Amino acid sequence: MKANRVIALIVVCCLSQWTAAEVDVEKVSTKIRDKYAEKQISKSTVLPPCQSCKALVTSFQKGMDRTARNKFDGGDAAWEEEKMGSYRNSEVRLVEIQEKLCSDLEKGEDQCHNLVEEAEHFIEEWWFKKQQDTDLYEFLCIESIKSCCPADHYGPECKPCPGYPDRVCSNNGRCKGNGTRKGNGSCACDAGYTGVMCDVCAISYYQAYKDEKVTLCSPCHVSCQGACTQAGTKGCLACKAGYRMDAEHGCLDINECFTDDRDKGPCGPNQFCVNNDGSYSCLECDRSCSGCDGDGPDNCFACSKGYFLKDNMCVDEAQYTRDRHVLFSRYAVYGGLTVATCIIFQNNHKIAFGIGLAVALYIAASEHLISQSNQNAGPKLPLEDVNM
């Protein structure tokens, strides 16, 4: 019977391990499937035409970097260089680059491969005839395929952006369609700027500097409602809620917490108010308080049930009683040790002195440890309260 139980236990353990292994395999398989699906989605992602061409050029340049130090595979490199020409501009190197072209892209790999087939003759023309004279991106994407425009140009005809060449959108925005065959060339202004050329300060911003080439807009003070004329509170034309207009200083914070009648404050009956810039916060009083004007048991208007006021602080009655009993018991033990030492060793003063010194050191060490452990545990119970 015992042997059968052991065999059964072993079988159960093996089955549990196999089950766990199957679960782990299933989890791993799920992760692999998810990663594969994610990769397939990334490969099939369709990018804008110009971005796709840029990705192709980037991949090609990586291939050039990868093969920069390669040579012909034959044993006599010097002979091969002489008979076959330089590896640097050879067809062999071009083929090696094309073999891994687009495979390093995170998105749009399939689209890139299709583009390579369409642009293969342009790439070969650049490789053998134009490589020394022009950039691949410029030759392929701008001049040949015509999916991109030069920088600061837009649209099917690659028109210059507003303000070209030095002040495109006043250097305070971007030209829509910049560098592509898309867009209408209008300016999308940065935060704080508006207008056709992004040369006007938006609402809640003021003109900090302006000359023939530069317009600099800075944000108004946080207390301003809408427009302002200068930095700081004095520049506000109107104040936000939580502020009041002062003739000399501009918008000043309203202290919502200040009130002559604490019962009519903005917070609840067992909360206290904290003034913030332009607003206020209501925080809960300490649990020992019944109403308060600040955090902690020393800021209570009155003590909650189960607490009483001692030294201007609301103290837990139950905890205070326990502390009194512990304190009384502790000192009773110390006294008992002292008396016992005197009685036991009353005929040998040296031993009594030694034991008494040891007891004193024990008491001092105990009190020190207790003091350290309780220093953040609330108000300490005074020694005189033991006799209450």
UniProtKB/TrEMBL annotation:
Q: Which Gene3D superfamilies match?
A: Hormone Receptor, Insulin-like Growth Factor Receptor 1, Chain A, domain 2 (2.10.220.10)
| Gene Ontology biological process terms, A to Z | animal organ development; system development
- Put simply, this protein is called EGF-like domain-containing protein
Secretion signal: which residues? 1-21
Q: Does the keyword Calcium apply?
A: yes
Q: Which residues form the EGF-like domain?
A: 159-199
The Swiss-Prot or TrEMBL record describes its family as follows: Belongs to the CRELD family.
Q: Does the keyword Metal-binding apply?
A: no
Q: Which GO terms describe its molecular function?
A: calcium ion binding
Report the source organism. Answer: Megalurothrips usitatus (bean blossom thrips)
Q: Give the record's keywords alphabetically.
A: Calcium, Disulfide bond, EGF-like domain, Signal
Q: List the disulfide bonds.
A: C189-C198
